Amino acid sequence: MTTIRVTDLTKDYTIRKGMRRGAFRAVDGVSFDLVPGRTIALVGESGSGKSTIARMLSRLEKPTSGQIDVTLDDGTPMPRSLYRRHVQMVFQDPFASLNPFHSIEHHIARPIRIHRRASGAVAVHEKVLSMLDRVNLTPAEDVAIRRPHELSGGQRQRVAIARALAPGAEVLIADEPVSMLDVSIRLGVLNLLGRLQREDNLALLYITHDLATARHFSDEILVLYHGRVVERGPADDVILNPQHDYTRLLAIAAPDPEKIGKVVSSEAAPDRSTLDNSICYNHFTQSWESSEREPARA
Amino acid sequence: MTNLAPRTEPNVPDATMALATAAAERGRKPRSPWRMMLPTMTPWLAFGLVLVGGIALFGIIGPLLVQDPTTIRDSGLQPPSAEHILGTTQTGQDVFAQLAFATAGSLQIGLIVGVLATILSAFFGILGAYIGGFADEAFSLFSNVFLVIPGLPLVIVISGFVPQAQRGLWTIAVVLAITGWAASSRVLRAQTLSIRNRDYVAASRVAGERAGRVIAVEILPNLLPVLASQFVFAVIAAILGEAGLSFLGLGASNSSTLGTMLFYAQNGFALSLGAWWWFVPPGLIIALFGMGLSLINFSIDEIINPKLKNVRLHRKRARVAARLERSRVTRERKAAA
Amino acid sequence: MTISEETRTRTGSDRPAVISIEDLSVVYEVDHPVTAVKNASFSLAPGEILGLAGESGCGKTTLAYAINRLHKPPARISSGSITFHDRDGSDLDLMALNEDQLRAFRWTKLSMVFQGAMNALNPVTTVRAQLDDVLLTHRPEMSKKERTQRAGDVLERVGVDRRRLHSYPHELSGGMRQRVMIAMAMLLEPQVMIMDEPTTALDVVVQRDILREIVRLRDELDFAVIFITHDLPLLLEISDRIAIMLRGEIVELGTADRIYRAPEHEYTRQLLSSFPSLSGSRGAFIRTGDDEGQVQRS
């Protein structure tokens, strides 16, 4: 099974202000491993760099520095031409990630054909139907001929998942897969991802801003703040025993039904202006790691 | 001009409308994507289609049915009669017959220029926008240069440059196409940039689709309404441009178009002699054809920007709903009194 | 749907309700008329925070617009009444007001913070000018100095520095813009404020701050709030009572505590179970891999 090792991933953007050019570092020295059968959650708010990491992993953007090493089953490095076959992405917005012009069948058949998972019209069609069955979009024949605007948000996201798995991907990057869905169907889609991961032994990167689902759905959590990882560790450890101030801030701020009537929390919230993202607490080694980073280059 | 606004936050009426439409469509066989692209039939669209269709038919079949337009007779400048439906020209030629051939000529030019200009604008607009980077900058600069150069004077200069003998239909068509593609390419570039950033294009790239197929299969179908609209604009501009050129005497030398008809009418002092049957029909055909094409374009606009369709549908519904609500309030007040 | 007896009791003392809604229905007159709100009935006590929970398409925004009589054709109120019980003792039938009376009523007695309000500020005028506009319209007798003073006061009330009066909207962060919108709604000290998803697009930490402000302001100024959102845990924390809407109907209405501990309607239970808890045990979130994905016939 495919493994991805991300080392020191960094992404700089140039911002132009009039005649001057500055650099903005969106992602700064992020490292993690994606291993078959494990779900890693990348938790952060908007501007933390999590979507940029997703785009770099799916090769929509090139990293400024750092490595993304993909290793196959037998330990050999994977040739670049096979990257897209092994690594796929589910996008955040179910309303935008499907082309309104094409049928569902087209969306799933294209990756099948490109990566030669089946050949010949009949075999491809059969594979499309079987993928739709796997994501519980039944009756598959009925769904395949429809176009995106005829499906609900949850159904569209299932199609997106089917499309991502169609090439036979072994690493799945889910970029906020349920944040734009109605609340009551989020569970269903997340459970689907969990089931598919177990069935195919996928390596799953779950990107979200929602601490609660990250906790229940993943094995390991990485907390991102302004492009750097400030805390990492097993899910329960990070949530129930946060060490970094930012993680504590997130945990306090998240709405919790157990806190009925207690809007003004008794815990003192850490002051946002004093947050330091050059240090990271690693629950695996139970130690603080600090990193001196070079400034962004234009 | 069409609204190329990207997706904004859904508002309540649109969302409810979407729910109602979805409810209505459920259970019915899904329509093919091509069918979805066609505009809904409205009285305006029907009128436009009738105008365009009628004039096109006249231009295609007319020349086969009318008498020879070049026959010179003694009876010059005769008003419409039984023998000559639209009277005769100064040299006794049948105006109606001339009109048929002229319409055919103008339609030909319109079509050729439309196609050429659309191909040029599609190439410089879409391709540049998709590739991005230096190619985009270069193509964009190129289009802007052509945009800034004044169209009609350039056409006149180029036309005047080519000696009369070689100034055929195709020359004029090429000249008009070269001077008219730039505005279109800016529109297509903007639209392509907007589509290129959509998630479904990124998704197809992540799925492994090659650039050529991404443009052809993902981007182009969504550009079709805009392309169609630009094509129609190009045809209108071509016909008007050609009419202008010919009126100035710089038009195609060997063919007969509506513009050349007006040219001869002007030279034959038709206006001062009151021979309205000579210059009014060609002018009318130009105007009506342009109007018909514009009406068709309005309907295409509704596909490009579906909110325009809602505005039209809402206007009628809004009146109905407002009336119902007012009557309910007065009814209840009367009952309470 | 029967609504439990609690709707008839007031929260706490004998204070009369500030808004009573009786059997309100809103219909969209499209080709196949859609009933967006069906027979909604509830009353809002003074100083109460009433949460209106539901997912997309349930009619909560339509209901909010209808209360304000902001709904535009083809939407129309097909039945029911909305009565405003003023502080001074008079009762206003909102359906009977004409345009001028409505304009006088809106913003002085009842104001609204719209969905996506962060983008509702005019980008080319300063904050001061926009707040000034509201005061000019409704309190023409105030002098310019008084208006500026009042605008500054209200801004400080919501936690924005008075000096920000001279800023343009794009110079403020999302959270600050939202506070400005709330300030604008509070400018004339209305007795009721309707807030439609005021914090949805904001980061969870900023969201927490805004919620704190809203509750604090309510405590200080004693206005009632109808808080519309899909985020049930959030409502559980801040609301006195919660109404759950499904497909245009209010299917359950009760105190926040009761809704959480003893939900009666199936849909309420389903909504509650969609939110995994941060602090409870990990198994509290169902992860059976079971999910429904049939083509919905809702």
Automatic annotation (TrEMBL), chain B:
Cellular location(s): Cell membrane
UniProt keyword terms in alphabetical order: Cell membrane, Membrane, Transmembrane, Transmembrane helix, Transport
Topology relative to the membrane: Multi-pass membrane protein
Keyword Hydrolase applies: no
InterPro entries for the chain: BP-dependent_transpt_permease (IPR050366), MetI-like (IPR000515), MetI-like_sf (IPR035906)
Domain ABC transmembrane type-1: 107-297
Bilayer-crossing regions: 44-66, 109-132, 138-162, 169-188, 285-304
Gene3D superfamilies given in the database record: MetI-like (1.10.3720.10)
CDD domains, sorted: TM_PBP2
Record carries keyword DNA-binding: no
Top-level taxon of the source organism: Bacteria
Family of the protein in this entry: Belongs to the binding-protein-dependent transport system permease family.
PANTHER family found in the cross-reference section: D,D-DIPEPTIDE TRANSPORT SYSTEM PERMEASE PROTEIN DDPC-RELATED, OLIGOPEPTIDE TRANSPORT SYSTEM PERMEASE PROTEIN APPC
Entry protein name: ABC transporter permease
Organism of origin: Microbacterium luteolum
